[in-house]
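Consortium newsletter contribution from the modelling node. Members have asked for a concrete example of what our holo predictions look like. Here is one, prepared for the FE2/S2 (inorganic) cluster complex that several groups have been discussing at recent meetings.
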Amino acid sequence: MKSRMQPRHYLSEAVFERERDRIFRRLWLFAGLKTMVAEHNDFITREVAGVPVVIQNFRGELRAFENVCLHRSMRLQTAPAGRRPLVCGYHGWSYAVDGSASHIPLHDELYRFPAAERDAMRLRQFALRAVGNLLFVNLDPDPLPITDQFDQAFIDLMESSSSMYDTEVMTTTWHTRFNWKLGYENLRDGNHPRFVHPQSITKNVVFVPLMDEALHAEVTPELDPSLDRTARREILRRFSYGGAEGSFKNVVRYDWQQYVERWGETDAYFNWLAYPNLHIASSDGGFSFTIEHHVPVAPDRTDLEIYWMTARKRQPYSFSGTVLLSLMHGSKLVVGEDVQVMEEVQRGLHADAPTPRQGDYEGLNKRVERWYVDLIDGDHEI
Ligand code: FES
Ligand SMILES: [Fe+2]
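And here is the predicted structure:
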């Protein structure tokens, strides 16, 4: 059957803006690791759906604020991560845990704000949730419950696996030239690895495409336009899932694995997909983890922010940095193969490009597309 997706869904600025409004400013989005903001004054900054956000530790309390000074709009924290009080570098205003401007240097000499005006000044605060070691923010002033986005079993799985991450983390950002949705359609496509990764991951991992009759049947009828919000959220919850997705031809053990703990005891390739833009994998049965956070930048540009870490160390060992480097090199190969394909798909898209065809194994993508088109082209809310 034909896909519901049209070329404009991957090319149009107007669609990209609507996605920001209806998806990225409504849903819980990955924002970093709790262990990166473990101490007083630790912070991380990011851009979420075009909004600068800072997550800052105030004596153990984590807060997410708009990272913009209330005086002259300077970004408060300018580094990607660090340890520094929430103080503006322009005229030195400092901010407290409630977002108030707790100290304005030379206030009485130069500014002289009336008390009521000064008391009313607050940084805009965003909802923040920790799921194990994973931090999620939500820009919506009235955010949906996180359990409306992810089912409890999936939250438990993210919580237990991420709590096993070691605190030594290597990160990088890969600037790519494709629409963020192509990456997730690819991640839900269990048939691509044998063709795209014959020289890398499928040398040792066997992926089995989903041929779930029930799943397929469920997505075939047209979406009922009268679906209410509860029903739409029920569909949304099923876009995120995790677990063993591939089996190993040979179980390979490395020396370094004796120095770390392990998440679970299953020799399998694990994959977690958290809609809309977080992908976590463990390609060695729980000894190490890769987080891929796909950040939409423009209709045809996506930043892949990637984190590598092993499971928690049992004891420090001298070559842990080398282990992370080798994990990084391994996934650079695999991710590079995917990126190359996604960029070619993007290059093939133009206003009059043929509508993609989908077979029975693509039930998951059909389900997401049906919901997406309804949301973006209709006038629904999540
Ligand atoms: S812009 Fe921040 S203190 Fe002036
Ligand atoms: Fe792939």
